[in-house]
Amino acid sequence: MDPFAVSHLVGYESHLPTKNVRLPLKYLPAKGTQDASEKYTSTLLGHSGYIDVSSQKGHFFSLIQAGVTNDRKHIRLTPILVDEATLLGVLLQSLEFVLPHPILGKGTFTHHFLPLTTDEPCIVIDFLDESFLLVTLRVELSDFLVGNAKSRLSLDNINEWVNISVPYSFELRSPPFMMKALDAHNLIVSMNDGGLLHFRRSSPLLSFDIYNFTDAAPAVSLSLGGLFARSKRTENEIGGISSNAAVDIAYLNADDFVILTLNKTVKVYSLRSHRQLKQLSDLTASHGRSEWVNNVPNKYFELHLHLDLKTLSLTLPTENEAAESKCPAYTFINWDISDGKLEQHDTLKLEVDDLNRPSHADLKSLKIQDFQILQGQSEVDYFVLYKSNTYSEVVRFKQAKSTKEITLITRSLTQQASVFAELSSHRDSLYYVNTVFDSGMFDKRMVAAALDIFIQNSEKKPSLFESTCLRDKVTTTVSFISSATGVSESSTWYKFALICLEFRRSSQEALSLAVQQDMILCSEVNAVGVYRKAHPLRWPFTSLPLTD
User: Fold this and answer.
1) Which long-range contacts (CB under 8 A, 24 or more apart) does 164-169 make?
2) What is the pLDDT of residue 134?
3) Among 29, 193, 209, 446, which residue has the least CB neighbours within 10 Å?
């Protein structure tokens, strides 16, 4: 099978106008004197995923990229156009919520899409900030339309789109470790001490009723026949967090949900009685793997449907008995929960060889960053995003339902050498100007950051006016530094372009994936990665020149 080719749409949201939204809270003045490179990094997405809104009929877009920046003070929502909606003359915009306090962590940011019932279809976003404020945002799909006459997201009608509360005294007990929305009405909060809370509300912007869960269920062995290595001893804490803290949470049925704990135990709880119903305690896999603590919370559960079959899948790293240089293996445990019970299951071990990977790939730390499972009549497709510190790739495993064997593995092509591999200072200045501003390789955020670095490292500073456009600022700065240092202008442009290139490379770090009908989309820290069969890419947004 042909491999997947990838195209990176850098600065995707910059192709759309952005509406900035502030909360009805006090904002402190922004701190200055930040290093230019650190300032740029803080604006990139630290974690991100896709919200699927395709269940809403008549939608102009089927996905929304939702992410939180590295400084945890900005939430970005960007509609992803994978169809020809632009032909309808509809103008869309991104939304950026500017927060007065940082979000506590990536585990305390959650969202849920509520399709049209009696109200407008909306996205419900909940997050806990460092002040332990629980903020709920209600974003309607119409808010992404430019010139929407309703203009909901303003301080004049905050009751329509935001609720801010202090529902629980975390400072008196234990900080929250993870929060997950089961639906628009039920939030589950796991704390550092292993405690579990249920926040229930009758409507997204109303106050919560709070319930504590109790653990009172006997342990039940999953009997996986030694598939996972057992820990030699039980740890009460891992990395300062209780081993009972939840690292992922998923619905089991209308009344019950499951959690995966830090010590890799699966527990079932009731939303009605708030008691533990079941515990599967034979999942103490891959003990001693320190990266387990560093990578949570993350995605380990997935619910997927095919006709009347409802499956809950869990993935965990498997203890690797092979050479240390070999890529880590992962095992998927698949429960048939069509009857709402966590009983019948099968397992599948997935691993990929290290052939055809670039020499710089950090294979020993390769892990599953995200995955999505699609079931067909006779086959199951596992789409897996693998990632290490220096490398990422998308792999599809096709499994035959009848034999449970993997029949086909399709991998993404290794990233091609950049066009800058052929560049040298022998090019003329105009070539670099066109590359930086007109090739579509760089967005405004990258070029502005490169300009800050250039000025920051220059002994003499050029005089720039705020009203001057970015292109003129860069041109003036490059000419000034060239004259001040005695270096040719083309060589100075080359150095500037290399800084932009480094920002482009860092912008392509993959965070999550979403499988579409004829492509796979990866949410990246400052881009959208498009994976599809290796042929010329057709996409609503091709590389566009940089504009102010």
Assistant:
1) 164/23, 164/24, 164/25, 164/133, 164/134, 164/135, 164/136, 165/133, 165/134, 165/136, 165/207, 165/208, 166/132, 166/133, 166/134, 167/134, 167/199, 167/207, 167/208, 167/210, 168/132, 168/197, 168/199, 168/210
2) 98
3) 29
